[in-house]
Amino acid sequence: MEDLSCCPVLCRLTPLLLLIQLLTGGSLEEFSVLGPSDPIVAVLGGDAVLSCRVFPAMNAEDMELRWFRSKFSEAVFIYQNREEQSEQQMGCYAGRASLVRDLLSQGEAAILIRQVQVSDNGLYTCFFRKGDFHKEASLELKLAGVGSAPEMRITGPEEDGVRVLCTVSGWFPKPQVQWRDGSGEKFLAFSDHTQDAEGLFSVEAALVVRDRSVGNVTCSVLNPVLGQEKAMAIFIPEPFFPQASPWKVAFLVSLTVLMLLVLGAGCYIRREHSIKLREMEEKRHLWQAKEEARQTKEKALQDKAELQAQLNWRKDVYLAASTWKPEASFSETSVFKGLST
């Protein structure tokens, strides 16, 4: 059995480890616990043997032995005072877990779990205690179950092909589903899985076959732990494929032409819009240039008028000044003449 396969290796290592312990001054009252390095594989519904051993080999009938799950209190099996103790044992293991007594005198603690189920899958710890000294080791129990063979059926035409459905149930762990054609070529497909109350997997995988020349398609289901596979093939007759309708072809052609016309119209409208925008931009620039020229001309005329007004004012001042000086001279002469008379 798988759990006892490591015995020859342990037997060969025992003298070497004992020598190392003696050389390092270790006490013979101390020990270590060894378990299998590889997981123990069991089939659902069958029996599983979990085994570990103390090193160096010694009679363990007077030791305390406990197998538990993730917590010390989650006891799968308890052996103490040379008797099996059921008070602290988990209810799901009552009546299913028992000790293989013939091996205990050789320092090996092997328990038999009957009718293993999905909840038994996982890690276990083997615990030995002698007086105040104790050691433990862990191991993994991997459960696997091969369920029903694939059931295949054609569910009808879909899009431009035929839809084929493959269903299985009662597998553990989740199986791998693969589709192949008659030549062994693999198809890419999607699958949906569910778990029932017992933890078993059901899978539903669908495939749409579009190639009329495929003929047979095979649905294979593989258990990744056991490496066991179940497969089923189905033949797809050519009449099952949807026939191409002339109306459908005409519709596709008309739709393509319509899309091209819409695309062309869109390009034309976009081009005309761009031309109009460019013309409006040119007109705006021309109007701005004319407006700037008009403002420049008005400013020049205004400056010219202001300059002419300034010149006229200066001219009037000058003329006024020229007219006033002679009059003043004439008056003074008249006054002098009057005084002298």
TrEMBL record:
Subcellular compartments: Membrane
Transmembrane segments: 249-269
Keyword field contains Transmembrane helix: yes
Principal place of residence: membrane
Keywords from the UniProt entry: Immunoglobulin domain, Membrane, Signal, Transmembrane, Transmembrane helix
UniProt-listed Gene3D superfamilies: Immunoglobulins
Entry-linked InterPro entries: BTN3A2-like_Ig-C, Ig-like_dom, Ig-like_dom_sf, Ig-like_fold, Ig_sub, Ig_V-set, IgSF_BTN/MOG
Record PROSITE patterns: IG_LIKE
One cellular component (GO) term of this entry: membrane
Signal peptide bounds: 1-25
Residue ranges annotated for the Ig-like domain, each copy included: 15-142, 150-233
Pfam families associated with the record: C2-set_3 (PF22705), V-set (PF07686)
Domain of life: Eukaryota
Identification of the protein by name: Ig-like domain-containing protein
Organism expressing this protein natively: Sus scrofa
Gene name in the database record: LOC100155579
